[in-house]
Amino acid sequence: MNSRSANNITNDFQHEARILNSIWLITALGLVTTAGLAWVAKYLEITATKYDSPQMYVAIGLLLLCMYGLSKDINKINAVIAGVIYLFLLSLVAIVVASLAPVPAIIVVFSTAGAMFLISMLAGLLFNVDPGSHRFII
To answer: How is residue 74 annotated by DSSP?
Structure first.
């Protein structure tokens, strides 16, 4: 009986670690995608030229509205809709960030943060450790 309980705890730990590794991979890809979309927005001149321009207010308003709508109906969406919403939110964040900072700085910051999440996820998979636990120290 005791070994079955220990086996259950191990399986739960592995399942939790797999879920967290997946979340960290999605986060890493999202950060790098945001940097790429910021470059595209700046290249195509989609960004707002002034901080008080209507485009900036529309982008920030849409971002806040989507976040509010997402928090209200999170249980009613499937994976495809969640992916589309995620890309839409990344696009809005990229437009806002590209309006506020130079694109090379955005690329460095967002790509570095994405690489940190990716390295942590890969190390967690390699050593079979939950990257969110206190035992995971690099």
So the answer is: G
